[in-house]
Amino acid sequence: MNNNALPTPVSMGIIISCALVYLFKNISPALALWPLEGGYFQLWQPLTYAFLHGSFNHLFFNMFAVWMFGTPLENAWGSLRYANFYIACILGAAAAQLIVLLITGNQYPTIGASGGVFGLLLAYGVMWPNNRLFLLFFPVPIKAKWFVLLYGAAELLFGVTGTMPGVAHFAHLGGMVMGAAVLWKWGWRPGMSWQK
Fold it and tell me: Which CATH architecture has domain 9-186?
């Protein structure tokens, strides 16, 4: 992994854009991702929802993850491939969330970049599986591949059991699944080294 200070305009653009939207009080609720059957859904929402955040902590942890996992990926892949990957992950997260809302009948909006972040986390674990992570909420060094597996399993458990209501666990998983699908299309297979 090349951690040199190379330009990462997409990662920095995501961070700056999300911070500005938050400072302007999320601009408009019409940018959130609303359920398909509630009368508020618009075609732009599966993209725009990822720029809105409900609290400073929500914003901070998502943008910290974009910086931590996204900037090395952008350095490795280049900005265009990285942007395509991130957009695919937030769209995959939106699709998963819309399906869950349709099944459950819930009528609340979804906001946040977490679905894209979970896709970045997965890609980081694929690219550098043996890198050791030392995270604020997990203060024990752990290899990236194990962290991705544990976090994904925890999100599935939380989603199925309804633990931590108000968190879009299936959107997080949707971002990971879409990220895995894109990596597969690009040539990565389990047990193989990364191929650009």
Answer: Up-down Bundle (1.20)
